[in-house]
Amino acid sequence: MRKGNARFPKSSSWPRTKTVVKKWLNLKNEKFHSDCCIKESFGQGRQERRKSCSDKDGSLLSGRDLSGGWLVESSENLRPPARMFVGTWNVGGRTPHQGLDISNWLLDQHPASSPAHIYVLGFQEIVPLNAGNVLGAEDKGPADKWLDLIRQTLNHSSSATSHSFPNNYRYATGASPELTQKDRVSFSDLLAMEDRLSMVSELDDDSEPSTSNPESSSEEEMGDAAAHRRPASHGYRLAASKQMVGIFLCVWVRADLMPCITSLRVSCVGRGIMGYMGNKGSISISLTLQGSTTMCFVCTHLASGEKDGDEVRRNSDVVEILRRTRFTRRPHHRLPHHRLSPPETILEHDKIIWLGDLNSRLTGSGCGGTQELLDRNDWQALLEKDQLRVEQREGRVFGGWEEGRISFPPTYKYLADSDTYAAAVTFASGKSHRDKKRTPAWCDRILWRGSGMEQLRYARGESRFSDHRPVNSLFSLQLAADHLLRTREAAAAIGLRSSRF
């Protein structure tokens, strides 16, 4: 007779029931990692930030809330545009090695191009999608290595690029005294200063001062003074990062603009096993830019497969992600303008980016004409068979969303460490063998929704690290002026109170 309860040994590789239940119910999906911990109180105009253990270079700004710092005297309807880089990459379950170079993907290769203010980077399959990773404890090691690699790449680039800001501006430094109304610098102020000083720099480079004009010396001194005012680098800081099994999303912001980012929140939706596990699904990050523009970034890994009907499962994933994504509203989350609180759902945001491995395949991929179009590099003819565009045209998914013109080859599937597409792959399962075709397709995509967004570039990288090629896009964000917010501030400045506001 057996005594006691039979138990798995401690060395058992089976996940614990508690861990499985947590992942099944998506518990603690609101927690995320950041270079700063934000406590917002719009009523008092205060924002506290603390240094994170991940911030290794020790230069994190301890910012104050600048959400009320818009300059009222400006009568323009539009603020200067911001630049946002968006990238997605399915890395095939591989952890980055020491020699991996991602600069071709993240950095603009044109020397004259200005760096982005915000980087939004999404990954899929940062860990192998096996039972241990899907049901067991989260493996944070690969995510940490990707963060370290991204930090080194972005900050190495920014150290070689100068950004100019006048000395008489104090923006969110720990040693600075309490900011007055005229001292506060908003996101638009920083962008405007950057543009003006860039113009000064270009003038200095393109023209030589006249030695015959006695007044030219003062202009030279002003040019030299502007050059000496340029700090070596602002660098980039991690605003937020979140992992769900193999899906990983991180948002990086230029350090001097970090105080302009508020209301950071995260929501995860599992769409894998039984429709709830995290081997497929989405991670969404919501934030507010300078207290007026709400943005949402949705990184997804949708259902795979190229059989007829698999596109229906992907459409269902999109519908469920939109339905189930919810951002928690907390008492201290209050926007100082027409919204009483930040958005709760994806579609309530002003500007939305949807990125990831959408697993879209080519319809009728078994026909012989596909290989002929590939050989001719006739991407536009192939895109007529793209499931995502077919489903979108038929109104079955992504109604109202936009995608840029695709002028690059299919991003999937390549043989390992090569530029050759995998036409057929043999899978082994015990003693049985079967062939499964992998028709090239544009699985990796970036879509957007919202006004005031212009796509400047839509391209792919050429790293052979994975069987997918990374994709990137550069956006120009036009931030519309909020006249109600300006009216509120103007009324507060002269001590007026009105129920209208």
Automatic annotation (TrEMBL):
* GO biological process, any: phosphatidylinositol dephosphorylation
Nucleotide-binding as a keyword of this entry, yes or no, is no
Q: Does the keyword Cytoplasm apply?
A: no
Q: Keywords for this entry?
A: Hydrolase
Annotated PANTHER family: TYPE I INOSITOL POLYPHOSPHATE 5-PHOSPHATASE 8, TYPE IV INOSITOL POLYPHOSPHATE 5-PHOSPHATASE 9
Ranges for domain Inositol polyphosphate-related phosphatase: 80-483
| Species annotation | Oryza brachyantha
Q: Name one GO molecular function term.
A: phosphatidylinositol-3,4,5-trisphosphate 5-phosphatase activity
Q: Where is this region: Disordered?
A: 201-229
InterPro entries given in the database record = Endo/exonu/phosph_ase_sf, IP5P_plant, IPPc
The protein's name in its UniProt record: Inositol polyphosphate-related phosphatase domain-containing protein
Protein family membership: Belongs to the inositol polyphosphate 5-phosphatase family.
- Superkingdom assignment: Eukaryota
As given in the record, the signal peptide range reads none
